[in-house]
Structure formats: structure tokens, C-alpha cells
Specification:
Helix content: 40-55%
Number of strands: 9
Radius of gyration: 33 Å
Largest sheet: 5 strands, antiparallel
Oligomer: single chain
Number of domains: 3
Strand content: 5-15%
């Protein structure tokens, strides 16, 4: 496919001064997006469709919050593929906002702060209006964090498979994320959904229904896993749904035995990088340590480890303390990685063997150990000379 100009909204300290058309290759990767990122495919597809662009210097800024202006721009581009060729206004977003007002997406007398971050509930409201989806009029509460007076567009978007919420509440009920702001990574996902819905709503909903079913079944399977009995090892207890040995489902957390068992028993637990993994890792380490040593020691370990992870420390920095007959060594591994080594000295079996052997031999030699008996023998036969 030939290269085509792409509209890029360059951001400087949060200010979007103008539009700039830059040459970009649709299959060229952004420097700040990797193929392993969950949003990689969505970003590439939305970019190829001409719905999104970078923020300059071949960057996409996936974690930046999107504004009202950015989202309205995406909707206008989806609904009118000629809008980019229309005359510019005073501000880069003027023609998109004007289009949204003319087509009922934004009310004529509705005031919005175009450069403010746009909440999730506003995204679905504008999306439903853009796609001519009627507000929901029933009493069903799908998301536990949505009040009855706020369900009309949120429920409508859910029933049309345009939103799945932002996770689950502690009760297990789905969470929408009222008031939460969305990122540019999520913007790419939403742009693709809106485009697919506009092009073929029946096919889109059939595909998304299957995806929702798979996700709901996965949640129920995980819920069942978390309800399984706890595991025990060397006095440690795993929190529900977590194991104690081997690789964990949340990113490689493990507990292992190291060193010569005749000298020292060394248990290692580590917290790796990544937001999701770190949250689970910290929880896991705290609960496992607490199960054997109590909350005070567990919290002390976490405090030291997180101080290393969030401070300015050299790799292999460590802090050691002793409690309850054990030695606790928190070791920093660089980045946000740290580990806790818990050890307890035990008596060497060879010591016991030597002790009992010596005692048996001493009894046969007048109560003297062999070396002492031998020394006395030679000292007697070869007396020291002046």
C-alpha cells in the first residue's frame, strides 16, 4: 500500500496547538508500542484506517489521557471520511466539534471543556448518539458502580457490545468505571469498535457476543480457582487461588528452597515488574509471610522492598533483620524487582555423627578423644628437651 499523509495531533505539555500533516507508513511501528502490548493490534488497525495518529517523533503515547476534542474527532472521522479535507477553523478541533453539534452528538447548547480528559460515561454517551443508538429505558443494573439515573447510555452501549466495563467489583459484579478517564491505548480499541459497528452492526455484535461469553466463562473459572483450598509448605500457607511452588499464573512468582540443607534453609520470594504482576506479587508475598510470621514482619518486608523499588538504590542493595529465630534479607535486583530471602540455621547432621563417634571412641580410651590420647602417647615417649 502506498504511503499516505496522516493527521497527527502533536502535544506539547498538554497543549494541542495545531494539526500537522506528516508522512507516515501505515505498517511502521510507533517507538513506544511493542507487539506484546495488549493494545498493539488495535493501534495498528486504527492507524491503518486513518482514525488515529501519533503525537510526534514516531510516538503514540498509549498511556496519555484522551480529551473530549480527541474523542469527538475520532467519531467525526468515522462518520464522515471527507472531514479531514474540509477547511480548518481557528483551532484544530473546531470543524470536528462543529460537525458533532450539527449531527446531534453534542447538544447545541451543551458546553464542554474540549481539552479536558473525557470520562468513560461521556464516551459511551457520545458514541450512542453518533451511532443513533436509543437510550436504555429499563431498570436493570448491569454495572455495580452505576446509579439508576445514569444507566440509559451505559446500558445501551453494553447491550450493543460497545463497552464491557473496566473489570469487576469485590462483590463480583461488573464495574463500569464511572468517572475514570480513558487512555490513548483504549481510544484505539474504541475507535475500531465504533467503526466495525457502523460498517456492519449485526456481524459486529455477533462477534462481540462470543468474546463476552469467553470472558465471562474465564471469570467464572478464575473465581472457582480462587475458591480452592489453600496450599501448605514448610509452615507457609498460600492465599486462596495461589500456589506455593513453581510458576504462578500472575507472572512468575515463586517460592523455592536454596543452599545446602545441612547448613541453611533459604526460602526466596520475589516481586517482579509490571503493574498487574506487582499488585498480585506484593499481595502474595505479604500473605505467605504473614501466614507463618504474622502481619508485622510481613508488612516490614513489603515496606523495605517497595522502598528499594521506588527509591534510588544500587542493584544488589540489601537490608537484613532477624526475628523469631529467622534471618530476613530483602535484596534489590534493579528496576522494580526485589526479593526476600528467609533463612534459618539448622544443625549439620555431620556434627551429630562426629559427636557420637567421638563419644563412643572416648569411652574405649579412658574417656579421652583419639587425638588427645595420641598426643599424650607421643609426648610421653618423646619428652620435650631443653
Amino acid at each position: 500500500m502506498a504511503d499516505s499523509p496522516t493527521v497527527a495531533m502533536e502535544v506539547y505539555n498538554g497543549v494541542m496547538p495545531s494539526q500537522k500533516v506528516i508522512a507516515a507508513t501505515n505498517n511502521e511501528n510507533f517507538e513506544d508500542i511493542k507487539s506484546a502490548d495488549w493494545y498493539y493490534k488495535d493501534v495498528m488497525e486504527a492507524r491503518k484506517a486513518g482514525l488515529i495518529a501519533g503525537v510526534g517523533n514516531n510516538r503514540y503515547a498509549p498511556n496519555s489521557v484522551i480529551t473530549y476534542a480527541e474523542y469527538i474527532t475520532i467519531l467525526a472521522r468515522i462518520l464522515d471520511n471527507t472531514i479531514n479535507t474540509k477547511p480548518e477553523g481557528k483551532n484544530w478541533y473546531d470543524k470536528y466539534i462543529e460537525y458533532a453539534r450539527e449531527n446531534g452528538i453534542i447538544g447545541n447548547n451543551e458546553g464542554i471543556d474540549v481539552m479536558a480528559g473525557i470520562p468513560r460515561e461521556e464516551i459511551v454517551r457520545f458514541t450512542c448518539k453518533a451511532l443513533k443508538i436509543e437510550p436504555y429505558s429499563g431498570n436493570e443494573i448491569i454495572f455495580g458502580d452505576v446509579k439508576a439515573g445514569d444507566v440509559e447510555y451505559i446500558n445501551a452501549a453494553y447491550k450493543e457490545y460497545l463497552t464491557e466495563g473496566s473489570g469487576r467489583l469485590n462483590s463480583g459484579q461488573k464495574k463500569f468505571g464511572i468517572g475514570e478517564l480513558s487512555t490513548r491505548a483504549q481510544l484505539a480499541t474504541m475507535a475500531n469498535r465504533v467503526m466495525s459497528y457502523k460498517n456492519d452492526p449485526i456481524a459486529y455484535k455477533a462477534e462481540r457476543a462470543k468474546a463476552r461469553e469467553v470472558a465471562d466463562k474465564a471469570y467464572e473459572a478464575e473465581k472457582a480457582r480462587l475458591s480452592q483450598p489453600q496450599q501448605f509448605y514448610m509452615g507457609y500457607t498460600a492465599p486462596p487461588g495461589y500456589g506455593l511452588m513453581g510458576v504462578k499464573p500472575d507472572g512468575g512468582l515463586q517460592i523455592g528452597v536454596y543452599g545446602d540443607i545441612t547448613y541453611e534453609l533459604n526460602v526466596e520470594m520475589c516481586v517482579s515488574e509490571g503493574i498487574d504482576n506487582r499488585e498480585k506479587g506484593i499481595y502474595w508475598v505479604r500473605e505467605v509471610i504473614k501466614s507463618k510470621f504474622g502481619a508485622e514482619i510481613a508488612n516490614r518486608v513489603i515496606e523495605i522492598g517497595e522502598r528499594f523499588a521506588n527509591g534510588n538504590y544500587l542493584t544488589n542493595a540489601r537490608e537484613i533483620f532477624e526475628a523469631q529465630g529467622y534471618r530476613f534479607e530483602v535484596r534489590y535486583g534493579g528496576g522494580q524487582w526485589w526479593a526476600i530471602y528467609i533463612s534459618k540455621k539448622i544443625r549439620i547432621w555431620r556434627y551429630f555423627m562426629s559427636y557420637w563417634n567421638n563419644r563412643r571412641i572416648c569411652s574405649a580410651n579412658g574417656g579421652l578423644p583419639p587425638m588427645v590420647k595420641r598426643k599424650k602417647y607421643y609426648e610421653g615417649q618423646y619428652p620435650k628437651t631443653a
